[in-house]
Amino acid sequence: MFHKYTFLLFALYCLCSDGVLSNSLLAPCKIEDAACIQKSVQAAAPKIITGIPELGIESSDPLFLERIEGDLSILKYKFFNTTITGYKDCQISNIIISPDLTNVHFELNCPTLKMSGLYDINGRLIILPVEGNGDFFLTTGKYNILVDSELKIQPGTDGKSHLSIKNFKLKCTAKSPIIFDFRNLFNGQKDLSDAVHKFANESWDEVSKLVQDPVFYACMNKIIKHVNKYLKTVPLEDFKLN
Ligand SMILES: *[C@@H]1O[C@H](CO)[C@@H](O)[C@H](O)[C@H]1NC(C)=O
Ligand SMILES: *[C@@H]1O[C@H](CO)[C@@H](O)[C@H](O)[C@H]1NC(C)=O
Predict the structure, then answer these.
(1) What is this structure's pTM?
(2) Which residue, by CA, sits nearest to atom 6 of ligand 1?
(3) Cα-based distances in Å from 6 to 108, 145, 159
(4) Which pLDDT value is given to residue 23?
């Protein structure tokens, strides 16, 4: 009787505390073993980005954002119900983790990111006035994203130490032309809309620098929330070797 009971408790403990998949995703590495970490993270990232419904981790590709707000000095824009695809194809590299596990730096190289949703925009796109609202479609070429982030170690509900990603800073650079398609600019006045699209097409580098940050911060914020949700299911000791 006693044995049956302890076995049941043990089985429940395993199911609840470790989750079904947790240990399998991040291969264990020593902190100083950069090559191992790179390999481990590269293998795990696409699975976490795709989402793990069994663990309650939502999809980051497609990534859905109800609201993105860009409040720049000369330009205000809002994107609603935006869907972004492409993050799972970003290559992660140059991962540098501080030996005390308080900071991480890494680089993402994304072949293409596609966004669509509803927009509302008003202000100046560098030299041209721009206003309107409607459907929008954005397709980037190669994007380079540098991420610098703080890490934190905290006890989880299982009493074990868990890693999480805290504040982060981004440096994003478009490496090739971006296709802008904002429907119904200026209430559908074609000549004005064409002028803005032509300018944005030709000046994609300058335009991306002006408008990109609120979008990338909103995306990364949500992706990191999903990653942290995953990290809550797996104790640090399961993927960090001493
Ligand atoms: C976004 O989608 C939700 C759910 O479909 C809808 O209720 C809401 O009105 C949409 N937002 C906008 C600005 O259209
Ligand atoms: C902007 O570039 C896209 C893709 O190259 C092209 O289809 C579109 O016609 C261009 N728009 C203008 C107004 O130049």
Answers:
(1) 0.88
(2) 81
(3) 47, 50, 20
(4) 54
